[in-house]
Specification:
The protein is of the alpha/beta class. The chain contains 18 helices and twelve strands.
Length: about 575
Amino acid sequence: MKRRETLRGLLRYLKPHLPVFILAILCALAVVAGQLLSPFFAGKAIDCIHAGGIDWGPLKNHLIAIGISSAAAMIFQWILAVLSNRIAYRVLSALRKDAFKKVEKLPLKYIDNRPYGDVASVIVSDAETVSEGLLLGFTQLFTGIVTIAGVLGIMLAIRWEIALVVFCITPLSFFVARFIARRTFKSYRAQVEARADESAFADEMIAGLKVVKAFGREKKNEQIFSEKNEALRKTSLKAVFFSSTTNPSTRFVNALVYAAVVLAGGYFVISTAGMGVPFTVGGLTTFLQYANQYTKPFNEISEVVAEFQSALASAGRILTLIGEKEEPSDEHLPSLGRAQGAVKAEDVAFSYDPERELIKHFDLDVAPGMRVAIVGPTGCGKTTFIGLLMRFYDVDEGAIYVDGHDVRSITRASLRENIGMVLQETWLKTATVRENLTMGRPDCTEEEMIAAAKAAKAHSFILRLPKGYDTLLGEEGVLSEGQKQLLCIARVMLCRPPMLILDEATSNIDTRTEKLVQEAFAALMKGRTSFIVAHRLSTVQNADLILVMKDGKIIERGRHADLLAEGGFYKELYYAQFAK
C-alpha cells in the first residue's frame, strides 16, 4: 500500500475521534503560547537590570508572568498527553478489532497461502507500532510546526532583519529531513516485512517442535532462522542508520541558525546603541531563546520522523489486511432449516491451484440416513470434498446439493448448523471442560452434557481431572491427544446434528477405546447422514456406501464385501492393512 493511501486510511480511523483531536490541537496551541511567552517576559526582565540599578516593580511582574506562562504550558502539556494517548489507543483498538474481524471473514484460501505467524504479527505487532509511532507523532508534529510558525512570526515583529537570516537557513532543514525520510520509509518497510517473516517462521517451528525433533530438523531450522535473522539485521541496521542521521543533521542546521542569530543580534545591539529604539541585550536574549525554540521542533520532528516511517510501513500492512476481499456475504440467502440429510454432487470439479487439477467429474447421490465412507491414498481429495460440502471452499464447476438446495444458494451458517464435524486435528479453546463441551449447545442441561461425555467414553477421565468438568484446560488440566479427541467427539454427540462428518475421528485413540467409541458413533449415526473419511479400513466396513478415490476421482463405489469381491483398488488397500 502506498504512503498516501495509508495516510488516508488512518485518517478514516481518526475521524470518529475528531472532537477529541480538535481539543488536543487547542491544548497544543495553549502549550505553544505558554512556551512562547516565557522568553518574551525573560527579555523584559533582563532589561530591568541596567547600569542605573534594578527596576524591582516591573522585574517582579515579569517574573510572575514567566511563572504563570510556564505553569500553564505544563498543565496543558499534561492534558495534551492524556488526550493523545486516548486517541492513540482507541484507534489501536479499532484497528485490531477490524483486522481480527476481517480475518474471520476472509476466504480460507487467504489463510492457506500465508503463515499463521505473519497474520498474527500484523494484528498484534504492526498495530502496536502504529499507535506508538504514528498517532502519538501527529500531536508532536503539529506542536512543532505551530511552534516554528509562531516563533518566526514573533522574531519578524521584534527584528525582521535577524528573522530574515533565520528564515533563509530554514529550507536546509526541510531538505535534510525530506532526503532522509524517503530512504527511511523504504528501509523500515523492508524491516517490518523481514521481522514478520522471521516471526512467522519461529511461530511455525515452535508450534511444530515435536515434528522438528522427530525428523532431526534442528540444525536445518537453525540455519534457516539464521538466514532470516541476518536479513532482519541488515534491514534493521539500514533503517536505523538513516533514521539516526536525521537528528545530527538537523542539529547541525540548528547550530548554524543559532550562530547566525548571535552574529546578527550582536551587530544590531552595538549599531543601535543610543538610538531611539535600540536593540537591547534583553531583546537579544529573547531572540536567542526564540532561536532555540525555533530549532528545537526540528530536532523533535526529526526524532518523530523515524517512528513515523516505521509506523507508516506497519500501518500499510494492517490496512492492506483490512482491505482484503472478503468471502461474499450470504445474509440475503434463505436458511436451510433442519436438514433431512440428502446430499448430491453433480460433476464437481475443484483445485486449489488452477494449474493443478484435484477433484474432477465427482458425482455422488446420498439418501438421508446413509453412512458413506470415503477412502483412498493421501492427497486424493477426500478431505477436500468435505471442505466443499461444508462450503469452506466453493466448487469450480458443477454443484453440491443438500436436500435439493445448491449449497451456494443457502447461508453458510444454516448449512454448518446441520453438520457435526470431528477432525483428526483436535481444537479446544482455553476454557473449562464444560465450556468446551457445551460450545455448540450452551443451553443444554447438566444431564445431557454428562450423557454425551459418557457416550464418548470421556466421563471417567474428566472426573479424574483436578476440578472435573470445571477444570480449566491448558492450565489445570493436561490432556493427551486421545483425550482431546474424545472431548471433541462428546461435543458433537451433545449437539446431535442431522449430518455427521468424521475425518479420521478416532486416529488418536487406542484400539480398546476406539471400539467403544465406534459403538457410540454407530448409535449416533443411526438415522443421520454420515460421511466417514478414514485410512484405517476397519472403521468403514459397516458403511452403507464406500467411495474409493484416487487422483481426485471416484474409481470404485459399493459395500465392503462387494468391493473386495471386485478385486480392484479397494482390495489392494484392504490387504495392505490386513493379512489374507
